[in-house]
Design brief:
Layout lengths: L15 E3 L6 E3 L21 H11 L9 E6 L6 H14 L7 E5 L11 H11 L11 H18 L4 E7 L16 E6 L9 E5 L5 H15 L5 H4 L1 H10 L4 H13 L5 H8 L5 H4 L1 E2 L3 E2 H10 L3 H10 L6 E3 H8 L3 H13 L4 E2 L5 E3 L2 H14 L2 H31 L5 H23 L3 H17 L3 H18 L2 H17 L3 H18 L2 H17 L3 H17 L3 H17 L3 H18 L2 H15 L4 H17 L3 H14 L1 H6 L1
Parallel strand pairs: 3-6, 3-7, 4-5, 5-6
Antiparallel strand pairs: 1-2, 8-9, 10-12, 11-12
Length: about 650
């Protein structure tokens, strides 16, 4: 039946005045109601000083904004967004900033069964504003218009109101509900960043700082049981416990609740139970609702299939963070597509920004959740294919970076981008070798191991580098390739040589030498002999060194490796000089000098002339001066100013006009 604007169906509520006949009622003007819908603050709230100050400042009525101010608290599930929003709201209400009251609604944005649609939310707010159900317009647009009118009236008659949208999953869920008056203030909590929300001031929430996390556990225990002093009695165990929870507030509240529920359990006992990664997520559950896994599952359920697959596969990366390029390899997608997927996962706070820009990382508990989902949803063949793509990426990228650094060094330059990449990825590269070992991919890992050990040697990371060298030897043995085994042993010996563990290096080089000789690899044999000579010389075994160099020399000559021939002759000269064989030393030096001249190797020429000068000094200053003057010029030509200065100082030490003139 058609009804006039004053016709009502159902029960009439609110102030009414009889008029006409009993079937008709005229509504009196409704005084705008100051709603009081703010839930109680969470008493265990701890820390968050900076974020709390930012939100409070935005709520202050004197912030001077001519447009609506919206504070959006964004962060992953369980990070404490609602707790902060409620704490700030109660502080503002207590200060008298919102005489118009508070509207609060939990939009359940990540629960498909309890999701609050915008049309439902506006009806809830109309009821909170004192509008009887019977007065609701029949259309959504009508209800929305009435809601905005009531907010405008509230601003005029009572003053500013605070509207809190908790647990929103999208801008569309709340955009229509934003008030028109800039007098009001809005707070939104979301697992999405909601960068497109009008007027939004985004406050990103991460996990608590370690002292804040420990304080949250201690505060919760004392509130539950005022005489509970377990946190103070076991500070180290509390620190371990917060670390295992990844400083995530929800996880911290869960463990505190577990402890509060069992006063006989020590903090250390609970910590021990959480150390097992396989069961940690199950342990982080208290009652039916306090579950870290359940919180994560709600966010995961809203991902698209591609986003969910990316989220799962990112957990295959063995290091703490992953680059866009590595993510592309894992997913088998082009880099632009992978970048878009990572951005989507960041927006819902399933992953976080890494360092530097372009890398992302997991919260520890979200990584465990991703691993669990991958084990449940992905078949072994797909996972293995992703691992192979990732290993190939690290192998090729590390090889490219190493080659760029070497090329730049030959030009006496530095490739900063390649250096920075290797430094950023060093943990991933090392961890990738363990990943290759677990998945039985030694051939793919060998080139990576060689490049990583080389880089770690340059970084003088001796412990990690030696571990990588040992892994390379293991991988080489697994592929049963003699050439690879010889190379791995040679690289390990070379690493030990640079580490100055000379006595340990010699037997490793000896193993490599036997393999190279068995393979008939003259290049490897010559290079190993030369290195063995250098190691022997460094520990003062000059006769042995001379024998190794002498054995390497004809091999380099036969190979027509003129640079290596020159270096070997120089080292023979150095070894002869240390043994007091002056004439032999001069002969070797002069032969090396001739090769360096022909190669145009200014640095080699300068170094040889310097040593010839030292030999000639026993014959008088004139002979030494001639060599050192030439050495200084050669060092300058090689752009080695420090060495040139050292030559100038030697010349000054000779005295006389020539020395003064340089």
């Amino acid at each position: 039946m058609n009804q006039s604007p004053n016709d009502l169906s159902g029960n009439a509520t609110g102030p009414v005045v009889p008029a006409g006949h009993a079937g008709q009622l005229h509504l009196a003007a409704l005084e705008p109601t100051a709603p009081a819908g703010l839930p109680p603050a969470i008493p265990e709230f701890t820390g968050r000083d900076e974020a709390l100050s930012r939100v409070t400042a935005a709520l202050h009525p004197g912030s001077g904004s001519s447009t609506l101010v919206v504070s959006t608290l964004a962060g992953t599930a369980g990070v404490g967004k609602t707790a902060l929003a409620l704490h700030a709201a109660h502080r503002a209400v207590a200060a008298g900033w919102f005489p118009g009251g508070v509207l609060f609604i939990n939009l359940q944005g990540y629960d498909e069964y309890r999701y609050v649609r915008t049309d439902i939310a506006v009806s809830v707010f109309l009821s909170a504003l004192g509008v009887p159900d019977e007065s609701f317009p029949s259309t959504f647009e009508g209800r929305l218009a009435l809601y905005r009118s009531k907010l405008a009236e509230l601003a005029d008659r009572r003053g500013a109101a605070l509207i809190v949208f908790d647990n929103a999953s999208s801008t569309e869920q709340i955009r229509a509900l934003l008030p028109g008056s800039p007098l009001h203030r809005v707070v939104v909590t979301s697992r999405h960043t909601l960068g497109d929300l009008p007027g939004s001031r985004i406050v990103d929430l991460g996990v608590l700082e370690p002292p804040e996390a420990a304080a949250l556990i201690a505060r919760t225990l004392r509130m539950r049981r005022p005489d509970d002093r377990r946190a103070e009695a076991e500070p180290e165990a509390v620190q371990d416990l917060t670390d295992l929870c990844g400083h995530l507030p929800l996880a911290l509240v869960v463990v505190a609740s577990i402890l509060a529920g069992d006063p006989e359990q020590s903090v250390g006992e609970l910590t021990a139970a959480l150390r097992d990664r396989a069961t940690r997520l199950e342990e982080l559950t208290y009652g039916d609702r306090r579950s870290v896994t359940a919180a994560f599952a709600l966010s995961y359920a809203r991902l698209t299939p591609d986003e969910a697959r990316t989220f799962r596969y990112l957990s295959l990366n063995p290091g703490q963070q992953v680059s866009v390029e590595a993510a592309a390899a894992l997913t088998g997608r082009p880099v632009p597509a992978a970048r878009k997927l990572l951005r989507a996962l960041r927006d819902v706070h399933m992953i976080e920004h890494g360092r530097p820009r372009g890398w992302v990382r997991f919260h520890d508990l979200l990584r465990l959740f991703a691993e669990r989902r991958r084990e449940e949803e992905d078949d072994a063949a797909s996972v293995q294919a992703a691992v192979d793509r990732l290993l190939a990426h690290y192998r090729d990228a590390a090889g490219d970076a190493t080659e760029r650094i070497v090329t730049a060094a030959r030009l006496r330059k530095r490739d900063d981008a390649a250096e920075d990449w290797l430094d950023t990825e060093r943990l991933n590269l090392r961890s990738a070798l363990h990943l290759a070992q677990r998945h039985g991919r030694p051939a793919m890992a060998l080139p990576l191991a060689h490049n990583v050990s080389w880089f770690l040697r340059r970084q003088q990371d001796w412990h990690a580098g030696l571990e990588v060298c040992d892994m390379a030897v293991y991988f080489a043995g697994s592929v049963a390739d003699g050439a690879q085994q010889a190379l791995a042993l040679y690289n390990k010996g070379d690493f030990l040589k640079h580490k100055q563990d000379f006595h340990e290096a010699l037997p490793v080089f000896a193993e490599a030498l036997d393999l190279y000789r068995g393979l008939g690899d003259r290049i490897g044999e010559a290079r190993t002999l030369h290195s063995m000579g250098t190691v022997a010389r460094r520990i003062g075994r000059y006769a042995e060194a001379e024998g190794r160099y002498a054995a390497a020399l004809p091999l380099f000559r036969a190979l027509e490796d003129h640079a290596a021939t020159g270096h070997t002759l120089f080292n023979l000269g150095h070894t002869a000089r240390n043994q007091g064989h002056r004439e032999a030393a001069q002969g070797h030096y002069r032969s090396a000098l001739d090769i360096y001249h022909r190669l145009g190797n200014s640095a080699g020429r300068a170094r040889t002339l310097e040593h010839l000068g030292h030999l000639a000094a026993t014959d008088g200053p004139a002979a030494a001066r001639r060599h050192w003057e030439q050495a200084r010029s050669a060092y300058e030509e090689a752009d080695l100013p420090q060495n040139a200065q050292e030559m100038a100082e030697l010349l000054d030490g000779l005295g006389g006009p020539a020395g003064l003139g340089g």
